[in-house]
Amino acid sequence: MRLRSIALSAALLPALASACGASTQPVASPPPAAAAAAATPPAPARPTADDARAFLAKTDADLRALWIARDRSGWVSQTYITDDTEALAAAGEEAIAAYVTQAIHDAARFDGVKLPDDVARQLWLLKLAQTVPAPVDAARRSELAQIEAAMQSAYGKGKYCPAPTTPLGKRAAKPGAKGAAKGDGCLTLDELSRVLRTSKDWDELTEAWTGWHAIAPALREKYARYVELGNEGARAIGFDDLGALWRSGYDMPPAAFEADLERLWQEVKPLYDELHCYVRAKLQERWGKARIPDGGPIPSQLLGNMWAQEWNNIYDLVEPYRGQPSLDVGKKLVEKKVSPVDMVRHGERFFTSLGLDPLPKTFWERSQLTRPRDREVVCHASAWDVTWSDDLRIKMCIEPTEEDLVTIHHELGHDYYFHAYTKLPALFQTGANDGFHEGIGDTLALSVTPAYLKSVGLLDAAPDDRKAAINQQMKMALDKIAFLPFGLLIDKWRWDVFSGKTAKGDYNAAWWELRRKYQGVSAPTARSEADFDPGAKYHVPGSTPYVRYFLARIYQFQFHRALCKAAGHEGSLDTCSIYGNKAAGEKLAAMLALGASKPWPEAMKAISGEDHADASALREYFAPLATWLHEQNQGKTCGF
Ligand code: X8Z
Ligand code: ZN
Questions:
Q1: Domain ranges in the chain?
Q2: How far is CA 335 from the centre of its chain?
Q3: Annotated catalytic residue: which of 380, 409, 419, 560?
Q4: How buried is 84 (Cβ within 10 angstroms: 0-12 exposed, 13-18 middle, 19+ buried)?
């Protein structure tokens, strides 16, 4: 879906200046949603720019109505999963998919017409508006929408029910014990994630990992069919396959985009390799070289996160210097009994301190901040503007952890973007590219420094010497640097699946090959093609493209450097907080207000003066740690 909700299957695929094939294939008779469009008077033989504008005005109104309907049912289905709400979500998705395919076909009459830039750009964005375009055939279109909704629900409802004799089964049976299952004796993703975050028991960690991954084999057949139908939809509007469509949203040809990603990856890979080497050595001290051999991948259940995507939860195992002031914000949140609402207020305060508006009253009435006790929901965090009119919300299952405090800033970043461009034409109501959208809240979170946290009572002391600063850098690197290869590989896997390079019979093997090659992690237990491990990551069954998060990890340091400069910060980037700085706020707001109305390099220029993605800001931020890691790794066998 291309939603005003981020992190749903939603999409926000951005615009591209270069042309990419419009559909020349005949499209079947218009679906009901498009019937109104078909009833407009026949276009003149030679359409003009004014005709294109009129077409867009109508399309804008139609899209708004359809997107609002789709997002209303999407919100309800994700905050109350039942067969009925799943069917409503599928219907909303189906209607919009039908409309967009038809509208793209209708817009083909403007091909070759000289158009003003804003008109040409909206027509191009229309082609990218549907993350998963539907086949023209009504039955297959309906099938695709149902599969998408079913995969999303299945993921949301996923649970692991341990047998009483297993390590987690025994734990679950102890009432009141940490990790004890509630009610049915089954464990949700939150509970299994808590085990991965806190347990230091090999068997428990392995069981939590395999337990969650057992939800995914049931999705394998559905996913294979989704690939067929999604490709059919993408081809019907002129793309080679669904992956080609996803790579087309970056104002450059897909091949140039891939090359740019590789350039960025090569710039940050040396830092990842040093971090991996250091962390592996620390884990070897904890678990032994028999389990983690030199030169090999790290078993992925040992990194504190279900997907080994961020490693900050094992900070205690890898802390550079003991005896420094605690950086444990989670402990403080628990100690001070900071409620989920208060955590969100902390986030909002950061945005308003920059001169941005407070969140609307309805945000507090309509958001889902905690996991409801009485129904199934999709807990994966997301941000919404359900009725496309400043109806801002977030959907989370907040726990008192630092991770969730950072995620709150992340989600509010999406909401503030929605708010900033709410008056633009609907097709421009998206990020300059999807990496921008993912990077805004994270940019502000980079300003949530220990000094800032101390000022709001969430830390007792901020680092004031080199050792403490290295500890803080390590903490940040376990989040920001550890994530980079993961951010890249999910879509590398999907692009190969969509293009057919990876056949259905190789889904899981291809996944683990990429996990080993890029992340240097291995599966906790033997895997086979009976498994479907990519399906255990939200964004795969949820149809959310993922390379956006890789981009966001690069952009956010670029944005941070630019905003710190605007704020007049002197000193190293890792000590900069733009909290309370209106000049930085203005710069940010100006960029957000552009939405997708301009190619993303122009938005990048508006905020940073630079017109390309540049990993040098990230490298500058982590320069002290890079030197330190390099020293620590002397004499070690690095690599995997
Ligand atoms: O999905 C998200 C956000 C919602 S857009 C919570 N993120 C990725 C993930 O959780 O895998 C943020 C970081 C990466
Ligand atoms: Zn996000």
A1: 49-154+219-246, 159-214, 256-632
A2: 30
A3: 380
A4: exposed
Angstrom distance (rounded) from CA 23 to CA 371: 44
Q: Is the dihedral of CA 131, 135, 138, 143 positive or negative?
A: negative
User: Cα–Cα distance between 129 and 96 in angstroms, integer?
Assistant: 10
CA distance 129 to 150: 22
Distance (angstroms) between ligand 1 centre and the Cα of 570 equals 31
Catalytic residue, candidates 93, 143, 348, 411 = 411
Helix (H, G, I), strand (E, B) or coil at 21: coil
User: Could you say which of 145, 308, 381, 552 is catalytic?
Assistant: 381
Cα distance between residue 636 and residue 264, in whole Å: 26
∠ CA 262-266-270, rounded to 5°: 155
C-alpha distance from residue 639 to each of 205, 304, 307, 518 (Å): 24, 21, 20, 11
Helix axes 507-514, 466-499, angle to 10 degrees: 150
Report the phi/psi class of residue 162: left, alpha or beta, with left for phi > 0 and alpha for psi in -120 to 50: beta
- Residue 7 beta carbon below 6 angstroms from any ligand 1 atom: yes
Residues ≥6 apart with Cβ < 8 Å to 457: 332, 336
Angstrom distance (rounded) from CA 226 to CA 439: 29
Give the span between the Cα atoms of 164 and 173, in whole angstroms.
Answer: 7
Residue 348 annotated in active site:
no
From the CB of 549, is ligand 1 less than 6 Å away? yes
Contact 129, 430 (CB under 8 A): no
How crowded is residue 260: how many other Cβ atoms within 10 Å of its Cβ?
Answer: 15
- Let me know: does 368 contact 79? Beta carbons within 8 Å: yes
Q: Which element (helix H / strand E) includes 43?
A: none
Query: How many residues comprise the chain?
Result: 640
What is the C-alpha to C-alpha distance for residues 66 and 87, in angstroms, rounded to an integer? 16
CA neighbor of 553 nearest in space, from 500, 477, 627, 610: 477
The residue written with tokens 């969100």 in the block is 344
The distance of Cα 4 from the centroid of its chain, to the nearest Å, equals: 14
* Residue 183: per-residue pLDDT: 66
User: Per-block average pLDDT, block size 10, for the chain (640 residues)?
Assistant: 47 32 32 46 78 98 98 97 96 96 96 97 98 97 96 96 95 64 81 96 98 98 98 97 98 97 98 98 97 96 98 97 92 97 98 98 98 94 97 98 96 98 98 98 96 94 91 97 98 98 98 98 98 98 98 98 97 96 98 98 97 98 98 96
Ligand 1 pocket member 381 (CB < 6 A): yes
The four Cα atoms 131, 102, 136, 71 give a dihedral, to 10 degrees, of 40
Q: Is 458 in the pocket of ligand 1 (CB under 6 A)?
A: no
Pairing of strands 392-395, 382-385: antiparallel
b (16+ CB within 10 A) / e for 413-450: bbbbbbbbbbebbbbbbbbbbbbbbbbbbbbbbbbbbb
Strand, coil or helix: 6: strand
DSSP class of 252: S
Sign of the C-alpha dihedral computed for residues 166, 167, 168 and 174 taken in this order = positive
